[in-house]
Design brief:
The complex is a heterodimer. Chain A is of the alpha+beta class. Helices cover about 15% and strands about 55% of the residues of chain A. In chain A, strands 1-2-6-5-4-3 form a six-stranded antiparallel β-sheet, with no helix packed on it. The two termini of chain A are about 25 Å apart. Chain B is an alpha+beta fold. Chain B folds into four domains: about 80 residues, 2-Layer Sandwich (Alpha-Beta Plaits); about 70 residues, Ubiquitin-like (UB roll), CATH 3.10.20; about 130 residues, no CATH class; about 60 residues, no CATH class. In chain B, the strands form five sheets. Chain B has a five-stranded antiparallel β-sheet, with helices on one face. Classes of the chains: A alpha+beta, B alpha+beta. At the A-B interface, strand 3 and strand 5 of A face helix 2 and strand 2 of B.
Chain lengths: ~90, ~400
Amino acid sequence: MKRRWREKSERLAAQWLEMPADTLERVPRITIIGRTQVIVENYLSLLEFTDTRIRVATGIGETVISGEGLELRTIVPEELLIEGAIHGVDCR
Amino acid sequence: MAVRVAEWITGYVRVRVVDDPDRRVLGALIERRAQLWDVRSERDNGEYTCCVTLTDIRLLLAVARRHRAKIRFGRKSGVPFLLWRASRRKVFLAGGLLFTILLYVLSSFVWHVEIDGTDQPEAVASALQKLHVRPGTALYQILDQDSLQLALLDQLPQIAWVGVRIQGTAVYVHVIPRVASADPVVHKPQSIVAAVPGVVSSVLADSGLPLVKPGQFVTPGTVLISGSLLDGKAVYAKGTVRALVWYRSQLELPERLAVAGITGDAVHHYYLMIGNWPVQVWGFARPPYTRELVHSVESPLEIAGIHLPFTWRSETVYEAATHVSVRSPQELAKQGLGMAAQDVLREASDEAKVLHQAILQKKLERGKLYMTVWTEVEENIGRPQQIVPAPPAPVAPLHQGQ
């Protein structure tokens, strides 16, 4: 109950103040730069990693990045930097 | 491939994880926040490589053992590995050390001495050699710049100034040669003779033979200090001969003297000048002055540095009056004496001094005082006169054939 109230009020505040949703809510921010880089912030864990497919668990479910020659360039607790020829990003 | 400075300092290894198709090792490492990057899947299944810092190697090994994956180490980078490699190449290290030491040792010698500003660099070089400044001496053996400068100035009389600059292993010496000074004035033999008649009061001969005594009356041209000595040598006579000299002055002084002046009464007028046309603005008084003196000051008007086509003229009109003073014969006589003294001193030499004054004659005629003043002055009466040498007598050579 308490948790729900807090989430609701945060969402309301974010709407009122027209802030990006990721600053308040626990949702990932996925940035795609060109066709070569994907940055996943606020991820939870890495589920699968091959050179054609990377699955990342995030707060809203699973994010699947498909492509060719994928590499995990940087791994820090807040952020994953994926490089390679990106074909698609799916949220499931 | 970003430059990872912090990781490079701690050291990192590229590892290949074999037999891990489900990426359990990778997942566990990420979960434990191990520092790893550049994860790359290999073609054949179950293999991937990544970079791990040296601090997380133990963690990686533990995780791999638990998941029964194999680890193969690849390229090792970073400071710890560099040091380890260096420790295996002792000769290489020694070479580096030797190079540093050699560089240090060699840079503590003088390699180069440069002398400029003189047409005789050899003299300066030899003086520098005496001070041990030559290529090959150790820098700590030679003096500092200032001492070298002073020592060089001491050793070489023909230089006026020398600047020494030690820059690294080079010594730069800049010399300014002494320019030969002009020859001193050659004094030709002369005597001191009297310029005016008088009674000698004191004789001070710096050089030469004094021929007069105090109390002696001399006429112009009398030799006071002779340059011809008793032994026949002619010298440059010099000295001061003071004597009492008398002057007679004739004066005419008017009894009445008109002096123009202002009475102190004045009015002010102010005008604004438009071109040359004055517009009176303030001060309209028209005083009944019979004679007046007008003093006007014009100042240009300007606003914020821009000159206006007007000028401000402030005018002061003074009342002028001529004052005629009639002076008594006593006053006139006193003034006459002062004027006579001034006149005489102007005529006499510099160190003249008025001793006595007397009025010889005084006559008041047609509003003028005619007087004759006698002034006694003590002054330097000496005047140089060249000695014309007598033609030398033919002298027979003493030793012939030499």
